[in-house]
Amino acid sequence: MEASECEFKKDNKPKKQWISDRSWKLIRKRPRMKTFGLTEGNLRNRYNRLTKEINGATKEDKSAYFDSICQEIEQGSFKSVPRDLFKKVKSLTKATEPPILTIKAKNAEKLTSKSVIERWKTYCQELMAGDSTDSHSYNRGVGTANSKTGSVKGCSKAH
Fold this sequence. Notes:
Layout: H1 2-7, H2 21-35, H3 41-79, H4 82-93, H5 113-128, H6 135-139, E1 144-145, E2 152-153
Antiparallel strand pairs: 1-2
Helix pairs in contact: 2-3, 3-4
């Protein structure tokens, strides 16, 4: 059983570099506890205690991580290495920005807003024109969109 858990373990999110192994063990323990169900009061209380313990442990880990970076900045200031100091300060103060997802054409070039509509249109047409023998069932109730007016032809109101 343990071998299969290790073999097929799934990590969806990248690990935060400041979370310790102890905290990760607690984090992995919480979903397992939830699978038993939280209907009983005792299990619910244990689950809540574990959640509080995880929150406290991750706060401590984050604080220790920032303290270590601050110590490195202090030590670097004595060595007078401005490049390293700038990088470390920037890593502490920089706001993270989510990646901007763009729609790309077949040749992988980024599309503008008008061309995005056309790309979606061709993509949907390619899906509808597949080699499926039952393609007429997919087209039932599907209309065509007019990109200039924003209207859809061929769609009927649902009653």
